[in-house]
Amino acid sequence: MEALSRLATLLVVAACAAPPLALACKSDPPGEEDSGTICQEHYPVNAPRFEDYPAKPYAGPVAAVRWQADAQARMYRTMLKNATKDQRPNFAGHFIVVHWGCGSGCIMNKIVDARSGKVFHPAGVETNEVMNIDGPLFDNGGTLRYRADSRLFVLIGVPEEDEKRRGISFFEWTGSRMKLLRHVKVPPA
Q: Residue 129: is its pLDDT beyond 50?
């Protein structure tokens, strides 16, 4: 009986010494906390804004995808052709961001110049793993955010499946590559 009493005392002391379990996201219900989740509250209030990186939307004809001139584009020619069919520029004036699934929780990203049909494979953001992202972030623009009238590109997740880059990344499209403006790191649990 004395051993049982000592064990109960040890368990109480251990429970009191343990740090309190904090909610990872404000939207997490009690009991479903995950400190590794990328949450709405991680999105900085002073984040780069779309209007600070203006681009003039293109209204001309959309060129066919030039997949023949690019070995990597040839591998994805069907996805690229289907994704740009009947699509207007949706990014940085005259570009079209296209994306599709590349596995469980993975998104492949390409950028097509609507004027020339050239395909860009944006280094550093070509893929994005979208696991452990809080629902409100999906509801408030998704894990890729961009606009036709802006050069700003926001990626939420794990770019190129590199856990060291996990979080929220803000890029400026230069016309041929992504330039990192800011990164808010959200370490995994």
A: yes
Q: Is residue 3 situated within a structural domain?
A: no
Answer whether 160's CB lies under 8 Å from 124's CB.
yes
What is the count of structural domains for the chain? 1
Residue 136 has pLDDT above 70, yes or no: yes
- Domain hosting residue 127, numbered range: 37-185
Length of the chain: 189
Phi and psi (nearest 5°) for 141?
120, -10
Q: Which residues of 69-92 are buried (b: 16+ CB within 10 A; e: fewer)?
A: ebeebeebeebbeebbeeeebebb
Note whether residue 18 is domain-resident: no
- Which residues, 6+ apart, have CB-to-CB distance to 8 below 8 Å? none
What is the pTM assigned to this prediction?
Answer: 0.83
Supply the pLDDT for residue 187. 77
pLDDT band at 104 (very low <50, low <70, confident <90, very high): confident
| Residues 160/109, Cβ–Cβ less than 8 Å | no
- What tokens does 97 get? 């961001």
